Protein: Recombinase
Amino acid sequence: MDTNFFHIFYLRGGAKNSLSPIYLRVTLRGKRAATSLRRKISKEDWNSSAGRAKGNTEKAKILNRYLSKVENDLYISHQKLLEKGTKFTAQDLVDTFLGKDKKKEDQERMLLDIFQEHNDRVNRLVGKDFAAGTAERYRTAKNHVGEYIEKEYKVSDIPVKEVNLKFITGFEYYLKTERNCAHNSAIKYVTNFKKIIRIALSNEWIAKDPFQNWKGKLKVVDREFLTEVELQALISKEIKNERLDLIKDIFTFSCFTGLSYAEVKKLSEKEVVIGIDGNKWIKTKRTKTKTRCSVPILPVAEAILEKYSSHPDVSEKRLLPILSNQKTNAYIKEIADLCGINKNLTFHLARHTFATTVTLANGVPIESVSKMLGHKNLRTTQHYAKILDRKVGDDMAVLKERLESKNFWRKA
Structure:
């Protein structure tokens, strides 16, 4: 779509010795639109080729500064229309410049329409700026908002300007009760919705931020991970089923690299390099945050790469024959039963295991762990250290009971 435009300032009408009104004309895709700038000047004082007043008088300088501001505002209006992602005309550009579109938009901009426009843009950027999972979460958040509107307001959509604090807190309550969402899940959906309101606010479709007094705080959740004993049980378990054995190996690979499912799935030959120490490293970008992460390949992980190097589904672009996320997580739960691991195993638990049991518990500095995990903030990694502290406390409590049972000390 051709969105380039041209503009000129020109005089219209006026007698020879009288003042002539100054007009702005915009041309877009061969179509024109014009408007008066409510300024006048004599033809003798006007430079038609430059579209400016002649001379260096104070009056001429003031007018020329105004015309420069008009140009700047026109370009801002053009950018605003481009960001909407819809086709527009020269007249639309002039109307936006004049502010004629604001009142109409305030009345017509509907909440779910804005949400859908946002989601459409996200969908087009999957694989570039967004992960597929992010797009799916926004789709789900929009569906939840739509269902809440239908239940609470008995309509299919509402104007975005009707969103207030009552709507937001009501939506959060709806998620926790009607949708049975856990606290953190509900807060995340409301936060997804908050982005849509920020878009409306930045486009001046609403005058005030309804989220100003909303406080949504995530609860700290203890992240499960495999202990050293459980990890050893997983590694040593012989599984005859070929598919389950494959998933066990892929899960184990993540336990010793800290890579997420998406990162293991896209792991390619070019991301395995020789590091500064002369050994093999994985150097890649986190799918979620796009931050760089560098991980030395431990022997267990290297053995798995070697095991599947001749697999028919492996190539330069795909080093491991990983299945879909849904099937992988389903098989992982079967593997947990086979290994006698009484935990709700998911693929992401492997990343937690790498952070705790494999690295921090073995003395790897938290700064190094943070870099390998691709965390933007060290505080994210510190949560794993807190988990280990809690486990140390639990282990010492068990030790205390054992020592007391053996009468290792006497009461004074």
